[in-house]
Amino acid sequence: MIRIALAVVALMSLPGLAGCAWWEEAKDSVLIAPLSETLEAFDGAAAQHQRDAVLHDYGGLYDDPDLADYVTDLGQALLAAAGGTTDRYTFAVLNDARAEAFALGDGSVFVTRGLLALAVGDGDVAAALARALAAAPVAEVGPPDNLGLRVLAALDQEGDAAPSVLDAAGAADQPAETGDQRAAAMLSAAGHDPLALLALASRMDAYARLDAEAADDGATVRGPDEAAAAGDDAAAPAAADRDAYLARIDGLMFGDDPALGTRRGRYYVHPDRRIRVKVPPGFGVARLARGIAAEGPEGSAMAFDWLDARAAGETLGLVAYLKTRWGRKLTLQDVERIRVNDMEAATGRSYLITRQGRMDLRLVVVRDPEDRIYRLLFVTPPAVTGLLTAEMQRTTYSIRRLSLAEAAAVKPLRIRVVAKAVGETPADLAARMAVPAHRRAWFELLNGIAPGQALAPGRRVKVVAD
Questions:
Q1: Rounded Cα–Cα distance for residues 151 and 149 (Å)
Q2: Tens digits of per-residue pLDDT, 425-445?
Q3: Contact 345, 367 (CB under 8 A)
Q4: Greater confidence, 282 or 93?
């Protein structure tokens, strides 16, 4: 995610970039480091492995050639304006709801369709691309960090050694001013407003918070308030430019792709697999390539996934699977067979010692009528295990098969561009948002408007429709 850097704030206080000594000195080095330094010696096999991992974790490429060409043209224009070599970089749109942009060490630059949904004009997309090009290339891209995922990974490791669950490894921070100065210089050279870096960074943070809280109607949602003062001077796109961008993204898929599993409020639904599960209240949910991870109160977490077809086919008894495979590194207690909505299931409990102290575990495994095997894991501090037991049971028994009609009814949400009618208020437009919660906050964020801001009749805006 784009970082909000004090260096950019300082940079924006300059009277102008073009012609100043700093700009003339920086212009020729905008792309020398850090990304371009990796292009010469980046290992081909490692690059392919990293690209494959990105495509796996981010749902593959988004199938819209026109949008892909648009992002490529915008990225190449940034490179050309900054004096960079344009043929060494590739640009692509990922089929993921998160609002992100990043570059790999081989020159692959990615933006998500979530970022395109958030953007209100070319300047926002250019800011995301410039920051990705100017920052250090990411060393590893994967699912969000979550205690439940780390426990899953520890239990799934080969060997029988006791599982080790480490704290999340924090990413090493690069000197912020270096990357942000490069990004600002690149934007200025290409004719974009460098202040868009701050404005977009704030809105990306708000987007991530809102997405995590979307399952909880009672959550308090904060808007894009971080660095708001610094970004207030960013020029809004002209109406013609804004409308041209909106025309590009009209019909863009919003939120999760149902073909990969989708979050709908507190439910995770996978129509192709015909399965659903309901997450406890107060848990923020992130979609994974195969399932979901969620973080709850007081450091609790959960994860829901499934075995691949080969592993599921090799699994005979679920109790045996718990004891000899999934829970083989644990001291399982109270292992028992249960039924979950007419499906065979088994459960047991255990604990792990982590750097945060003891964590209680509840493991559940369920087999559907097509011999698909699903796994549900809860991780809770002992102090809250008892408080969450009832909710864990409700989540367990919420796992059920979808009927064919229910599966067929799950359709993707899409961005639709509409014109504000005379007499129509922002609240009226927000009410049309087909999101499970926080409709007004989503409407204001996606359209880059302030709470209470008046909209002129005929103004074209984004709404989310099914």
A1: 5
A2: 999 999 999 998 899 999 999
A3: yes
A4: 93
pLDDT of residue 144: 61
> Hey, what domains does the chain have and what are their CATH numbers?
6-143+173-226 (no CATH), 260-408 (3.40.1000.10)
Decide: helix, strand or coil at residue 199: helix
Least confident interval from 44-58, 213-227, 446-460? 213-227
CA dihedral 234, 238, 242, 243 (to 10 degrees): 170
**DSSP reduced 3-state for 64:** coil
| Average pLDDT of the residues in 148-155 | 73
Measured CA to CA, the distance from residue 140 to residue 129 in angstroms comes to 18
Q: What 3 state SS string does 351-377 have?
A: EEEECCEEEEEEEEEEECCCCCEEEEE
Structure tokens at 93: 């749109």
DSSP string across 15-63: S-STT-HHHHHHHTTTTTTTHHHHHTT--HHHHHHHHHHHHHHTTSB-S
Task: Report CA-CA distances (Å) from 211 to 114, 221, 255, 416.
Answer: 11, 10, 9, 19
* DSSP track, 66-109: HHHHHHHHHHHHHHHHTT--GGG-EEEEES-SS--EEE-TTSEE
Distance in Å from the first CA to the final CA of the chain: 28
Rg (the chain; Cα; Å) = 24
User: For 353-412, how does the pLDDT look when each residue is reduced to its tens digit (9 = 90+)?
Assistant: 887 789 999 999 999 999 999 999 999 999 999 999 999 999 999 999 999 999 999 999
pLDDT value of residue 87: 79
Question: What is the distance between the alpha carbons of residues 338 and 343, in angstroms, rounded to a whole number?
Answer: 9
How far apart are alpha carbons 384 and 361 in whole angstroms?
A: 12
- Give 205's pLDDT tier (boundaries 50, 70, 90): very high
**Token code pair at residue 235:** 């020029």
